[in-house]
Specification:
Layout (H helix, E strand, L loop, with lengths): L19 H8 L4 H32 L5 H49 L4 H6 L2 H43 L1 H7 L3 H38 L1 H6 L3 H54 L4 H43 L20 E8 L8 E8 L4 E6 L5 H6 L9 E6 L2 E2 L5 H7 E4 L10 H5 L9 H10 L3 H5 L18 H14 L4 E5 L7 H14 L4 E5 L3 H4 L4 E6 L2 E6 L1 H5 L4 H24 L4
Parallel strand pairs: 3-8, 3-9, 6-7, 7-8
Antiparallel strand pairs: 1-2, 1-4, 4-5, 9-10
Helix pairs in contact: 2-3, 2-5, 3-5, 5-6, 5-7, 5-10, 7-9, 7-10, 9-10, 14-16
Bound molecules: cytidine-5'-triphosphate and magnesium ion (MG).
Length: about 600
């Protein structure tokens, strides 16, 4: 089965509106007819059902005493069966159409949400907790689905039933008809009041739901930390606290609900009794026939019930509307455009990079990079060294436009980065992140993730060999088809880094960024990788962040960062001649290595 074609013919972002009901109507684009059919079918089904009730009433009141009962009874039975069958058929149709509408819209919203979330900027993801997005994409989306499936259809049905029965009542007796709807304004005002209250409480419930889901998600992601520090008790208390808060919010929300229902019931019943009383007085005074009285009594229940339900529906709708609003808050966030920029690429980039007076911060008031300037020719390598938090990752994160800078300039081949379309730019730059992430797919799928064309095994092997991970992969049960993650092998930190490196190398980028890409790899393997990279990186510009001097020393340009500033720059030779951080780091590392070596040599003589 394929999804209905019209599901994807509408861009959900067009439905953003200050008025949620209008927004809903727009989201339903392509399904309006189906929705109205569902409403109509449900109303018809309800009419047939009241028809059947009226038929029984007629039979008992007027036909039962007749002498020729035996002849009419089968006809009544037949008519009753027919009405019941019609009622069932239309109720089935309505359910079918309603669910098709609701499920199609849920499909549309879910896909739109997923697509949108992955196009949001890094900046947004930095600030938005994962659990919050998860709860909006699941729990809130489900409330919206229910709204379409139940409440939206219900409101249509109620309005139609009310209109039909009210017209019937008007035809019977205008005065009585008007008297019977006297409480309608009261119910509406009351519903709106509770609508506001319940919306507010429900929003609080959903907010807390997101907190719970963030807590759970963090706990699961950080399960190793929790266990390592034996903080289960603390985590449980933390969750219990949040959970109890949810309990209270949930209770307040349901309290409002349970306050509203009996209130409207009392009003409706008062209305009904009052109506009966007035109608009865009219019969006594002779202004109403007994027959009309009987008809009135049955019609009035048919009008009061929708009235009661309307109130409930309005209140129930608040949940759908609040959830819709929460979803739309995400949808309203600007996507990070992949095609912005005036530059029209003609071929691959060469890779001349120039950074001039660059100042950058994630927030406007904190400066992470201060007045950075340097330039590098195509094919050269740059190494970045600096204490933790000095801004190395931040600086290189600007090159693929993960974040936007506002002061200073960065150009590649003389083109300002802002003018180069993100999608294309990122195709030219290969990044091995500081904490690489692998998907729960096969190793091969992970390595080929960055390329859209068909890749031969030989190419995959070559990339893996360059990353010094081919031999390791071959020892796995299914080789390159071994699954990574929960259902497959758990890779070590260094293996993960090397698979990520292979993934980037296979992409064959013009500019390579290695953010501490060999930090979890032993020195010997790192050496292998370095040799392979030296060959591979010919003619490409590369940026390497590393702490080991051996990795850094061969670079054409070494930048030493401290608190967001370049404090030293040059080659290994020139920096060794200066008195500064670089030489101190080199001396420290050599001393440590010598000591380790001495210990190993001395250790040989020790008894085993
Ligand atoms: N930072 C931030 N928001 C981010 C990433 C980083 O505010 N999304 C801040 C950090 O708090 C830090 C500064 O930016 O103070 C520099 O961070 P980063 O560039 O990641 O530092 P590195 O030099 O890469 O540090 P490390 O060696 O530990 O990776
Ligand atoms: Mg870093």
């Amino acid at each position: 089965m394929t999804p209905p074609a019209q599901v994807y013919s509408y861009d959900v972002r067009n439905s953003l509106s200050k008025r949620p009901l209008l927004g809903f109507w727009r989201v339903m684009t392509g399904f309006h007819r189906l929705y109205l059919l569902a409403v109509a079918a449900l109303s018809l089904s309800a009419l047939f059902s009241t028809g059947a009730t009226l038929l029984i009433r007629e039979f008992i009141d007027h036909q039962l005493p007749r002498p020729d009962l035996a002849q009419i009874a089968p006809w009544f039975a037949l008519a009753f069966l027919l009405l019941a069958a019609l009622q069932g058929a239309f109720s089935f149709l309505s359910g079918r159409w309603a669910s098709k509408t609701a499920e199609s819209l849920a499909l549309r919203l879910r896909d739109a949400m997923y697509d949108h979330i992955q196009r949001l900027s890094f900046r947004y993801h930095d600030k938005m907790p994962t659990g919050e997005l998860l709860s909006r994409a699941t729990s809130d989306l489900d409330a919206v689905r229910r709204f379409f499936n139940e409440q939206a259809i219900g409101v249509g049905r109620i309005l139609i039933l009310f209109a039909i029965n009210f017209t019937a009542l008007l035809l019977l007796n205008v005065e009585l008809a008007l008297i019977s709807v006297i409480v309608v304004p009261v119910i509406i005002v009351l519903s709106l009041f509770f609508f506001g209250k319940i919306s507010a409480y429900y929003e609080k419930v959903q907010e807390q739901e997101a907190v719970l889901s963030t807590t759970l998600q963090e706990n699961l992601t950080g399960v190793r930390v929790v266990k390592a520090f034996a903080r289960q008790e603390y985590e449980r208390n933390k969750f219990e606290k949040e959970n109890f808060e949810q309990y209270q919010r949930g209770r307040r929300f349901l309290m409002m609900h349970s306050l509203f229902w009996p209130l409207t019931d009392v009003i409706c019943f008062a209305q009904m009794i009052g109506g009966y009383f007035i109608a009865a007085t009219m019969v006594i005074n002779g202004t109403l026939t007994p027959g009309s009285y009987v008809a009135y009594v049955s019609l009035v229940t048919m009008i009061i019930n929708p009235m009661r339900n309307l109130g409930r529906l309005i209140v129930d709708m608040s949940t759908g509307l609040v959830s819709y609003k929460r979803m739309m808050e995400v949808i309203a966030e600007d996507q990070e455009s992949l095609i912005d920029g005036t530059y029209k690429p003609t071929g691959d980039l060469r890779g001349d990079v120039e950074v001039k007076n660059l100042t950058f911060g994630y927030d406007p008031d904190t400066v992470v990079l201060k007045d950075i300037s340097f330039s590098v020719k195509a094919g050269q390598s740059v190494a970045l060294l600096g204490s933790t938090g000095s801004g190395k990752t931040s600086l290189l994160g600007l090159l693929p436009r993960f974040y936007e800078y506002s002061t200073g300039s960065i150009t590649i081949d003389g083109i300002e980065l802002k003018d180069i379309p993100r999608g294309w730019l990122r195709g030219q730059i290969g990044v091995v992140e500081q904490e690489p992430f692998l998907f729960s797919r096969t190793i091969r799928e992970n390595i080929t993730y960055g390329v859209t064309r068909e890749v031969s095994d030989a190419e995959v092997y070559a990339a893996a060999k360059a990353a010094a991970v081919h031999d390791v992969i071959m020892t796995f049960p299914d080789g390159y088809n071994t699954l990574v993650g929960e259902r497959g092998v758990t890779l070590s930190g260094g293996q993960k880094q090397r698979v990520a490196l292979a993934r980037t190398l296979l992409k064959d980028p013009r500019i390579l960024i290695l953010d501490d890409a060999t930090s979890s790899v032993d020195s010997e393997t790192e050496d292998d990788i370095r040799q392979a990279l030296l060959r591979l990186m010919k003619g490409r510009t590369s940026f390497v962040i590393a702490h080991r001097i051996q990795t850094v020393m061969h670079a054409d340009l070494i930048l030493v960062l401290d608190e967001g500033e370049i404090v030293q720059r040059g080659t290994h030779q020139s920096l060794m001649a200066e008195d500064g951080i670089y030489r101190r780091v080199v001396e420290l590392q050599t001393r440590i290595e010598e000591e380790v070596e001495r210990e190993v040599t001395d250790g040989i003589g020790l008894p085993v």
